[in-house]
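To whoever picks this up:

The parser on our side crashed when reading a file containing two proteins. I've narrowed it down to the boundary between the first structure block and the second sequence. Both blocks are reproduced below exactly, byte for byte. First block:
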Amino acid sequence: MSKITTIGLDLAKKVFHVHGVDVAGNVVVARRLKRKEVLAFFAKLPPCLVGVEACGSAHHWGREIAKLGHTVRLMPPRYVKPYVKRGKTDPIDAAAICEAVTRPTMSFVPIKGVEQQGLSMLHSARSLLIGRGKRPTRVRRAGGDRP
């Protein structure tokens, strides 16, 4: 079996998809993993580059996989999309992530710590609440509540 050098990991709620290639770019592994199997899978692998689309849970998985010795890089989904060759399915997304993470001009998102991620969530919730609070004022100014 060839040594895996790069992995694209497509995250989901229950079933994740992994696409791994060797130095020559040949596909070595392309499979589904259940949530509970992910860390065991990466624990068996020698350290490699792991690409993940940035989302809320990507920071958690990035921290956990990095603890196992892998180099984890998060990418904005809009930068990965051009690498999707056909259709939008999870295995194809994993292959696109694997391709995108190797590009030298790719922009990466830093992995947030637990505290930083919690603070970010707090700011997002606060801005939503503030946005809702301003709406009735704008409606009143526009004459929206006249009979």
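<<boundary where parser fails>>
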Amino acid sequence: MHAADGRCRNADKKRYLRQSVRLTGLSTPSFQTCIDNFQYIHAAFGRLVPDGGLEPFDPLTFLNHPCMDIATRYYTSRREDPTGTAIPFLSEVDPNGALQAMVTDDHFHGIDNQVLYFTLTDQIRNQKGELAHR
């Protein structure tokens, strides 16, 4: 179902909309340590849930380097979180308001859906003169 302006309002499709990022350390030892730690955490969770209740942990590769895909959905269902607080989309994520227009009583954009973007720049320094992030 589409609105007159062409935006999709179908809840079945809306619940799958997400933003994601693929990270790789290009086989650096520090990134491999991160992958190893994720495998350790996954194994620990695996001991706490019934068999088949946890998807297998299988890191992807990018140009033959291990990588991680990280994603969050834009919306949460009220059935999953009946008391969650809706927050507006950041203008960097939704500059034209298309995602905000899809918020309904059944699906909302909450703090668990929000992704914050940081950048390191030498233009920003803290009170000690050290580089800071924003």
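After patching the parser it read the second block fine. Residues 11-133 form one domain. The longest strand covers residues 65-73.
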